[in-house]
Amino acid sequence: MAENALNEILLQQVEQALDSIRPYLKTDGGDVRVLDITEDKIVQLELMGACGSCPMSAMTFKGGIEQAIMRAVPEIKGIEAVNLTPMDV
Questions:
Q1: d(Cα 85, Cα 71) in Å, to the nearest integer?
Q2: Measuring CA to CA, how many Å separate 3 from each of 24, 26, 37, 39, 74?
Q3: How many other C-beta atoms can be found within 10 angstroms of the C-beta atom of residue 25?
Q4: Cα(1)–Cα(68) distance, integer angstroms
Q5: How does pLDDT run across 5-18, given as a tens digit for each residue?
Q6: Which candidate, 38, 26, 29, places its Cα nearest to that of 14?
Q7: What is the pLDDT of residues 33-86, one digit of tens each?
Q8: Which helix H or strand E contains 46, and what residues bound it?
Q9: CA distance 32 to 35
């Protein structure tokens, strides 16, 4: 019971952090959706719209999405994007 309540609070905090960067994602036709927060406090995200197939999505994920969540919700231990487009380096 307490674990569910904690995850609900964390989910709300993660959503607030994402709301701070969603306008930038939506400008380029993309968005992000929280799929789950694991017991290990790993946030699993899905990049949607243009973000799901953009070759720059890895940079957007690391430089924007991940940093926004980690700054706003220090309890989160990591972030994973289930459909991140790998960067061709």
A1: 24
A2: 32, 32, 11, 8, 17
A3: 22
A4: 28
A5: 888 899 999 999 99
A6: 38
A7: 999 999 999 999 998 887 777 777 777 777 788 899 999 999 999 999 887 766
A8: strand 42-49
A9: 10
